[in-house]
Design brief:
alpha/beta; 2-enoyl-CoA Hydratase, Chain A, domain 1; six-stranded mixed β-sheet; four-stranded mixed β-sheet; 15% strand; globular; binds coenzyme A
């Protein structure tokens, strides 16, 4: 009988398809509940690379094949087998996983986590890396590290305090209890929770709205929201002036067109939706 582990290629660990300007990327180890192995981490970086500057990709959605979004780090392949290689093996595995999460946090296109099922521990890294997150009500979230004897590393502790109140983060990390999608939405881990059969349609709807907006403004905005969290008000004010001026050098016309369609054409209202990008000259 073939051994699944030795036959699994790196390419098989991540699946993706591009449809209507949305890249649907899937953790693809359903039989291992999409646990993140070194192979998967390396492949995910390749896939992000491949998709980031494609003209036919406006939004990236990260979801999971089967019953899980991701059961976190692979306890066997990510922890046990790399630790057996000594510090070098551990550090290499860390840099591969942290590397693609960091890449995703600052991705060129807006990103959406579509949490279809289990989301544990290390999974909080890519969850936070995605700009928006939608979950099935049936999904289950947990900082399970305490249950097998480590602290929530790989950024998971940081993600907990970034997204939840101090009391909730502490309870979540110390107790190792799971919460469902609805509670995850209430606690701020995701934007919304929906019945599983409505999840894809809602995410597709959000992705469609995003893909109609000015891409330079989207990138500048998502970076601004992440950057200013750690700044004083004055530093943020200054950063935002400079970030907008830098964005103008990439897309001066889009902004002018947005003003023109509102003020001159009266063809839309920015308070109610986005200007028509297709009418932009350059
Ligand atoms: N690392 C390694 N293997 C994992 C894994 C992980 N994080 N999560 C699941 N798997 C493997 C199981 O070992 C099992 O492998 P096998 O078929 O070779 O025996 C397979 O995936 C299916 O898992 P199983 O536990 O049978 O599925 P389930 O649907 O009954 O339970 C979970 C799902 C997610 C509740 C359970 O797998 C689990 O607790 N996983 C660990 C979660 C965790 O603590 N992650 C944090 C890591 S930082």
């Amino acid at each position: 009988m073939l051994n699944k582990k030795t036959t699994e290629t790196e390419e098989q660990t991540v699946a993706y398809a591009v449809e209507d300007h949305v890249a649907w990327v899937r953790f693809n180890r359903p039989e291992k509940r999409n646990a993140m192995s070194p192979k998967l981490n390396r492949q995910m970086m390749r896939v992000l690379d491949e998709l980031e500057f494609r003209d036919d990709v406006a939004v990236l959605v990260l979801t999971g094949e089967g019953a899980a979004w991701s059961a976190g780090m692979d306890l066997k392949e990510y922890f046990r087998e790399t630790e057996a290689q000594g510090l070098r093996g551990t550090r290499k595995a860390q840099s591969e996983s942290y590397g693609w999460w960091r890449r995703l946090r600052w991705y060129q296109k807006p990103t959406i986590a579509m949490v279809n099922g289990w989301c544990f521990g290390g999974g909080y890294g890519p969850l936070f890396a995605c700009d928006l997150a939608f979950a099935a009500e049936e999904a289950r979230f947990g900082l399970s590290e305490i249950n097998w004897g480590i602290l929530p590393g790989g950024g998971a502790s940081k993600v907990a305090v970034e997204l939840m109140s101090f009391r909730r983060a502490m309870y979540h990390a110390l107790m190792g209890e799971n919460i469902d999608g609805k509670t995850a939405a209430e606690w701020g881990l995701v934007n919304e929770a929906l019945p599983a059969d409505k999840l894809t349609a809602r995410v597709a709807e959000v992705a469609k709205v995003l893909s109609g907006k000015n891409p330079v403004a989207l990138k500048a905005t998502k970076d601004a929201i992440r950057r200013v969290r750690e700044m004083t008000y004055d530093n943020a004010e200054d950063f935002l002036v400079r970030a907008q001026e830098a964005a103008n050098s990439f897309d001066n016309e889009g902004r002018k067109e947005g003003i023109r369609q509102f003020i001159d054409d009266k063809s839309y209202k920015p308070g109610l939706g986005a200007y028509d990008k297709s009418r932009q000259k350059n």
